[in-house]
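Recall the central idea of this unit: under ordinary conditions, the amino acid sequence of a chain determines the structure it adopts. In this exercise we apply that idea directly, starting from the sequence alone.
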Amino acid sequence: MLENENIRLRALEPEDLELLYKWENDSRWWDVGNTRQPYSRYALKQYILHSDKDIYETHQLRLMMVDVATNDVVGTVDLFDFDLHNSRIALGLFVDEAYQGKGFAKASLRLVEEYVFNFLKINQLYCHIAESNTASRKMFEQEQYETNSVLKSWVKSVNGFENIIVFQQFREKFLT
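Accordingly, the structure predicted from this sequence is:
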């Protein structure tokens, strides 16, 4: 279920520590991920050790994107703010700069949709994309996600406040 011809999504492994340390501590991405400080190796090691807990318990899940052809870890998928009562879950995709533009985000998105809509049976998958993130906006528009709102001046960035576009995909639309 979590693999196609291009990408495999897998659980966190101890050997992911250095890669996560590199990505999580790159301050260029802190605005996108709502991070305000660096992570220690110890904190990330603890995070990996406790990542075996069920999504229904933690309300989140991080998966590593693996290029099937090379077995390289190319990015992450984050499912978070899992709200079972309202049947929705937030999505975050990250692809390392060296692998961007190769279709890994789109391939991962399709696997995540299968997992969320067909396995978890959740009604809604949504994400918040900065208005300036044209590559992500284009991908979600191409994948026919609905844009139902703009959150004005929602996040503080280096250049001031930035609007966020809310993208949504619904189970009923995905299954048709």
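Helices lie at 17-24, 30-33, 41-49, 55-58, 104-119, 134-142, 171-175.
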